């Protein structure tokens, strides 16, 4: 590699690192006080701002970052008009989709309620209520749960002439009016990850006992403890197998922050959280997430317990999220290649599991999903 090539290579790395700092600063500003230093934003070109906007979109934090830009206004570090117009337009699209989804959630919850079912809504809409501007949290799939009555819920949907696919790993799936719905039989893939069996039991038990009704939508929302246990594992699954983003960390961060503000009603039993994480083999990952929330998202340290820090791993996690390796994940050979390339992630998240056995279970799951006849409701593997 010649001098010019090396120079361009290092300039590219420097730009990636600077954009990483900028996007994390925007998140910090959006969730905390007025920015005191806008130096990193003051000399950006229009093209640089468009790159930053693209990264925010890829990380599903476009709305949060726009909220931060408004705070930067007083420091004179706003993007050019062309960028701002496009950014605002993209966020307005998010807002419209959020409102459309909110109406759909209310209709779906009402439908199931008429048949005697409580529709529990995980992630998504429920978490958006913790955001500075709820409709700025981008919406995705609807993850629902019926506390042991999921198969009956599927039958009700089938009666409406809607196709329901039931050979997924932990949920059935169907689409209504353009919304992708996942009806969960389990919270995590405990048949693939046997180390998480006790965590799965805890999550299901908590959903049976600690739900609260959201009057606005008519759906039922999980407890703070459920979210503090579930969200890191949801992030972990995406992190190991592809698709993790900053919004998933922000979701977790805001649950913890809100629990600290409203400690009377949203207490977190950190000792229980720790015991489950040690039992499941993901305690080091949880320590890293807490560290990222404190150092990069701006959540006060007194919101978290005094656990070990692994700053080198925290930085590696952030680097992987913000600059993921692009790999085709649809073919079996590419899945195998990615699996072994990401071995360090697997060992971080599923430290109590045998790596080869985990790989074989994952392949079996993929084959069954692709060609099998397994129903998620009988939890038996058949080909």
Keywords:
alpha+beta, 3 domains, 6% strand
Order of helices and strands: HHHHHEHEHEEHEEHHHHHHHH
Which class of secondary structure composition applies to the elements? Answer: alpha+beta
Give the overall shape: globular
Largest sheet: 4 strands, mixed
Biggest sheet, spatial arrangement of strands: 1-2-4-3
If you average the pLDDT, what whole number results?
85
How much helical structure, as a percent, in the residues?
Answer: 55-70%
**Overall strand count:** 6
Q: What's the tally of helices?
A: 16
Unreliable segments of 5+ consecutive residues: none
Question: First CA to last CA: what distance?
Answer: 51 Å
The percent range for strand residues is 5-15%
Task: Please render the helix and strand layout as text.
Elements: H1 3-31, H2 39-42, H3 46-58, H4 62-72, H5 81-114, E1 120-122, H6 124-128, E2 142-145, H7 150-159, E3 171-176, E4 179-184, H8 197-209, E5 212-213, E6 220-221, H9 224-241, H10 246-261, H11 270-280, H12 283-297, H13 311-322, H14 332-341, H15 343-349, H16 355-371
Helix pairs in contact: 1-4, 8-9, 9-10, 9-15, 10-12, 12-13
Structure, described:
This protein is of the alpha+beta class. 59% of the residues lie in helices and 6% in strands. The strands form two sheets. The protein has a four-stranded mixed beta sheet with strand order 1-2-4-3. It has a two-stranded antiparallel sheet with strand order 5-6. Strand 5 and strand 6 form a beta hairpin. The longest helix has 34 residues. 34% of the residues are buried. The mean pLDDT is 85.
